[in-house]
């Protein structure tokens, strides 16, 4: 990629912003080396990674990545046989712990479906639990090894503690006897040896070894002879301690070296996961989306925003190029947004080719180009004695040497800085040359000749940046299809220039030029009006979708309430049966008592008890259904769609089939479907039946007759497809379908993923799977309804 283009479009600032979202040193290094790719397959893979980064950050905030350091140098040192320091071993342990936590995190839920790329990377990581536990047990901090690192180390340190206690005890007793010779009655250390602070004039009164003196020379630090041997023993033990620590660190370093290949793999791949998450965080911070990628030179940016301008301030623009026209000529006043349009188009193209989400609405399209060239800004060079015109022309000459059909050219104020007539002619010739080479062009200009040229030349299109004459300020909106009007007279008039001068100036321009400016103004006004109407339509569409969403939520709540009612009815039935059982148990108990009190129970008494039991059960059953049965009448035959009362469960339902050979019909009660004998059904009274026929029963009957078992959503936008899918699933559910086939095609995968996400959350969907080869493969999803 052309380095000058990257600098002009400020690509490095995007890289800096992305780097701020990374945690690990490896991810930051990957970001610093990140460049746009002209390989469409690589770009799509990068964007798919970014999409997964979006999903992970949205669902879980992040992943448990607790490492920051790059361990490549540490692992190289271990493989070369060096002994690693405690801080290096702690970093290795942090990597091992992070690896284990990532693998444990990925075990739960359907994470493989949500982020298959990240799941596969984490699945490839190697856990080394033994080494992790050993380092964690033996290394306490950067400067401390655990006493339990080895039995020998524990023994040495215990001996050191004992010797230190003896030395202190000995010196403590000396403090009393030598108190008049001491500067202060304290025990201190010099060179790991215990000493007493003795006044210089009394050094002969305290026999021992002098180790140090104070800055003033008034105090000598003397090790009394009585503790010299004990201090020597402590010193020997400390040397042994150091040797044992070196041995422990070396053993751990050898184990790190033995596992270095796996650790290097973990180190690089955890960094790569962090790199993916950084792309996701960056995209979410920009309110960005994943664009559709092509290599046909087609650019269609919807509500695109320059990522380096505050998103609360920047005005979104729509840019189209490469479909019906290959060259876009933008005109308009200074500071109106022409240059920002060029930079937005170029920078968003580079971001997409890098694999980053772009700050534009979903459905935006970006092409992969082999070369992107930009000539923007004042390139005047004092050192080379080049004027602005000469400097720009030198850059244009270099661009023209390399331009081909896979290039995107961005040129600001082409031909400016010289005689207007010659500059305009030169600009038209250059644009024509680039166009004939097959490249895509976006150019800005002030020349009126280029407006006419773009209107007449096939494959060219005019665009302009809108200017509000009333406020004398640009709106920064891009209007494609019409050239920009100069507005010089209107602006001058608003600023106070007299009408006489303005009218005189109008007489000095040709009638054709004046008419052309008026046509431009009329076209601009019409375009603005159409834009406003379009925005109103979009607002109505969004409002409709919101109403649909609210209705869907209400429907779901009603379905839930209906299920609760059925559950309550079942609970009441169970309660009644339990009461009946209690009554029966009481009667049986009474019979047992009678038997105990009499050698034989008479037949008449037994019959009386049986009759009493039956009366109790009948009475309880009668109470539970008699009120409901008053509303219904017996039936001899049914039709599909009839509403009936099912006496076995005391609930209303809708008939889904005619009686079968067993005399049973299928009835739907809420979300439950069941087979019921005809003699267990009753018909709703005629008056109520007529009302129901105009409602849900009639709808179910119609759906059952007309609904298809599949729906084709190919060629639709994600929003359109989701709306049609939701409506279809409602119809299929009401019609009693068990399996349906959703055709979405393969394509870029955006439609398929949108549909699958919606199906996972849909309250009618029991399960889903991709179609097999005979059913349409990954271009089809088979759905089982509840």
TrEMBL record:
Keywords on record: ATP-binding, Coiled coil, DNA-binding, Endonuclease, Hydrolase, Nuclease, Nucleotide-binding, RNA-binding, rRNA-binding
Enzyme Commission no: 3.1.-.-, 3.6.4.-
InterPro entries in the record: DNA_mismatch_repair_MutS_C, DNA_mismatch_repair_MutS_core, DNA_mismatch_repair_MutS_sf, MSSS, MutS, MutS2, P-loop_NTPase, Smr_dom
Binding site for ATP: 332-339
Function per UniProt: Endonuclease that is involved in the suppression of homologous recombination and thus may have a key role in the control of bacterial genetic diversity. Acts as a ribosome collision sensor, splitting the ribosome into its 2 subunits. Detects stalled/collided 70S ribosomes which it binds and splits by an ATP-hydrolysis driven conformational change. Acts upstream of the ribosome quality control system (RQC), a ribosome-associated complex that mediates the extraction of incompletely synthesized nascent chains from stalled ribosomes and their subsequent degradation. Probably generates substrates for RQC.
Family, per entry: Belongs to the DNA mismatch repair MutS family. MutS2 subfamily.
Listed NCBIfam families: mutS2
Name of the protein in question: Endonuclease MutS2
Source organism (scientific name): Caloramator proteoclasticus DSM 10124
Lineage, highest ranks first: Bacteria, Bacillati, Bacillota, Clostridia, Eubacteriales
Gene name for this UniProt entry: mutS2
């Amino acid at each position: 990629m052309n380095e000058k283009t990257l600098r002009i479009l400020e690509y490095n600032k995007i890289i800096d912003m992305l780097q701020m979202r990374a945690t690990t040193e490896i991810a930051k290094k990957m970001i610093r080396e990140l460049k746009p790719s002209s390989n469409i397959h690589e770009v799509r893979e990068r964007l798919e990674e970014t999409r997964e980064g979006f999903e992970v950050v949205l669902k879980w905030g992040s992943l448990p990545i607790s490492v920051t350091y790059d361990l490549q140098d540490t692992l190289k040192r271990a493989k070369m046989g060096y002994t690693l320091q405690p801080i290096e071993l702690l970093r290795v342990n942090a990597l091992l712990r992070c690896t284990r936590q990532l693998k444990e995190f990925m075990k739960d839920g359907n994470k493989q479906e949500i982020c298959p790329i990240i799941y596969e990377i984490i699945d490839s990581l190697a856990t080394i639990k033994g080494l992790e536990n050993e380092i964690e047990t033996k290394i306490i901090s950067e400067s401390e090894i655990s006493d339990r690192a080895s039995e020998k180390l524990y023994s040495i340190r215990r001996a050191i503690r004992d010797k230190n206690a003896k030395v202190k005890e000995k010196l403590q007793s000396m403090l009393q006897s030598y108190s008049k010779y001491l500067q202060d009655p304290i025990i201190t250390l010099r060179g790991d040896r215990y000493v007493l602070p003795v006044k210089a004039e009394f050094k002969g009164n305290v026999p021992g070894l002098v180790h140090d003196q104070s800055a003033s020379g008034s105090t000598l630090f003397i090790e009394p002879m009585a503790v010299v041997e004990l201090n020597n023993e402590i010193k020997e033990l400390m040397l042994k301690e150091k040797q044992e620590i070196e041995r422990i660190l070396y053993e751990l370093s050898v184990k790190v070296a033995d596992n270095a290949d796996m650790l290097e793999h973990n180190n690089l791949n955890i960094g790569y996961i962090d790199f993916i998450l950084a792309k996701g965080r960056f995209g979410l911070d920009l309110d960005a989306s994943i664009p559709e990628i092509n290599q046909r030179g087609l650019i269609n940016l919807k509500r695109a925003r320059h990522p380096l301008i505050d998103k609360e301030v920047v005005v979104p623009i729509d840019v189209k190029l490469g479909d019906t026209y290959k060259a876009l000529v933008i005109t308009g006043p200074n500071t109106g947004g022409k240059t920002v349009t060029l930079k937005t188009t170029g920078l968003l193209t580079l971001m997409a080719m890098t694999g980053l989400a772009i700050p534009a609405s979903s459905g935006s399209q970006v092409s992969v180009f082999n070369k992107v060239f930009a000539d923007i800004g004042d390139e005047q060079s004092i050192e080379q004695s080049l004027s602005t015109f000469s400097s720009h022309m030198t850059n244009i000459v270099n661009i023209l040497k390399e331009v081909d059909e896979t290039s995107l050219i961005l040129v600001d104020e082409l031909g400016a800085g010289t005689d207007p007539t010659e500059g305009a002619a030169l600009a038209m010739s250059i644009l024509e040359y680039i166009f004939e080479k097959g490249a895509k062009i976006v150019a800005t200009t002030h020349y009126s000749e280029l407006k006419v040229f773009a209107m007449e030349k096939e494959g060219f299109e005019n665009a302009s940046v809108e200017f509000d004459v009333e406020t004398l300020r640009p709106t920064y909106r891009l209007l494609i299809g019409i050239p920009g009007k100069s507005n010089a007279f209107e602006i001058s008039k608003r600023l106070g220039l007299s009408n006489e001068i303005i009218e005189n100036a109008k007489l000095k321009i040709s009638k054709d030029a004046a008419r052309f400016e008026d046509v431009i103004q009329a076209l601009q006004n019409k375009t603005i009006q159409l834009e406003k109407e379009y925005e109103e339509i979009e607002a109505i569409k969004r409002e409709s979708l919101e109403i649909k969403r609210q209705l869907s939520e209400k429907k779901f709540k009603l379905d839930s309430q209906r299920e609760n009612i059925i559950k309550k009815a079942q609970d009441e039935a169970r309660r009644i049966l339990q009461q009946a059982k209690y009554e029966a148990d009481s009667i049986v108990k009474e019979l047992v008592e009678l038997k105990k009190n009499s050698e034989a129970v008479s037949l008449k008494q037994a019959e009386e008890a049986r009759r009493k039991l039956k009366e109790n059960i009948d009475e309880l059953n009668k109470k539970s259904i008699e009120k409901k049965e008053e509303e219904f009448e017996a039936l001899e035959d049914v039709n599909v769609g009839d509403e009936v009362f099912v006496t076995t469960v005391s609930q209303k339902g809708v008939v889904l089939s005619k009686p079968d050979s067993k005399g049973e019909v299928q009835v739907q009660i809420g979300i439950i479907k069941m087979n019921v004998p005809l003699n267990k059904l009753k018909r709703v009274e005629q008056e109520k039946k007529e009302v129901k026929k105009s409602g849900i029963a009639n709808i179910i009957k119609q759906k059952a007759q007309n609904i298809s078992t599949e729906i084709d959503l190919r060629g639709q936008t994600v929003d359109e497809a989701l709306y049609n899918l939701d409506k279809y699933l409602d119809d299929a559910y009401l019609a009693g379908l068990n399996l349906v086939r959703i055709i979405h095609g393969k394509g870029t995968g955006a439609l398929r993923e949108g549909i699958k996400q919606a199906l996972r959350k849909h309250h009618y969907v029991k399960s889903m799977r991709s179609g097999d080869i005979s059913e349409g493969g990954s271009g089809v999803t088979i759905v089982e309804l509840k």
